[in-house]
Amino acid sequence: MNFLEFEFRFYDPLICRFIQIDPLAEDYNYQSAYNFAENRVIDGNELEGLEWTRFENPNEKAINYVVNLKVLNSTTGLGMSDNKAKKAANAIKTQTEKSFGGKDIDGNTVSVEVNLEFVDKISKGDFYLEFVDEVGLDGVSKEDTPIDVRLAEGKVDEIGNSTSNRIQISKLTNSSMEEFGNTGAHELGHTAGLMHNNDSDNSKNVVNSMKTNNLMFVPQRSNAITPQQRSEIRKIVPRVRPASTLKAVGIKKLN
Ligand SMILES: [Zn+2]
Questions:
Q1: How far, in Å, is the centroid of ligand 1 from the Cα of 188?
Q2: Which residue in 44, 47, 107, 141 has a CA-CA distance of 20 to 30 Å to 3?
Q3: How much is the pTM?
Q4: In angstroms, what is the span from residue 80 Cα to ligand 1's centroid?
């Protein structure tokens, strides 16, 4: 790590790595009580708790993801207004759908639909995005990380947990809705198993992201997801039903 990298922005690469190594505060210990395999429901009828849900239609080489994302505005004082938080969440929805949609390496056409639900509080086990004054105020001490975690724009509690996870986005995220969109899409990529180009920890059996510039590339990146990354996501996110049943599930959009 050198100071040149800091010139781009104070971003989250070290934060994400740190979160994997060091368990979070007590409040979040429940996450380790359910490992991924136990938590997934394959070909089941219950969508509860599967916030990244994968639908496939092999005949049409189509893969659809429905991402149900709760959104909480936890900023205080002169933080973000609820209206701004809603705009930012919608920017994240739009950017995620744009970035993650496209072809994977097997020629499947991938599409993503993000459903936002604005809530006043969250429940144990929720999959949610939280706007905060500063990221990482719980469970992370300054001494344990070489940069000030509070200067990060975003972080995720657990890489590769697509069912019960928390994304934090700082109100200090570089002001524009575009930046909120990019940061949120980046963090959602983590929840679906994508890592940074320079991450070395593959303990969760997640392949590092491509070395080419992309949404997960640090410090400077584009907002594109590569075909290989789309295929990586497919390995992480559990499949629930064939795509033919997608409409029958009756998931409705909450705006
Ligand atoms: Zn990251």
A1: 9
A2: 141
A3: 0.75
A4: 22
Give me the residues paired with residue 168 across strands: 130, 155
For the chain, list the domains and their CATH numbers. 3-249 (3.40.390)
Alpha-carbon Rg for the chain, nearest whole angstrom, is 17
Whole-number Å distance, alpha carbon 141 to ligand 1 midpoint, is: 18
pLDDT value at residue 139: 54
Those residues whose beta carbon sits under 5 angstroms from the ion ligand 1 are 12, 16
- What does the pLDDT look like over 33-89, one tens digit per residue? 333 333 334 434 445 557 999 999 988 999 999 999 999 999 998 889 999 999 999
Q: How far is the CA of 190 from the centre of ligand 1 (A)?
A: 7
Give 207: exposed, middle or buried? Use CB within 10 Å, 0-12, 13-18, 19+. middle
Q: Which residue stretches of the chain are H helix?
A: 3-8, 13-21, 30-33, 36-39, 82-100, 177-191, 227-236, 246-249
Burial class (CB in 10 A: 0-12, 13-18, 19+), 102: middle
pLDDT at residue 24 is higher than 50? no
Question: How far, in Å, is the centroid of ligand 1 from the Cα of 135?
Answer: 13
3-state secondary structure of 99: helix
How far lies 173's CA from each of 54, 60, 169, 202, in Å? Answer: 30, 39, 7, 28
51 Cα distance to chain centroid: 11
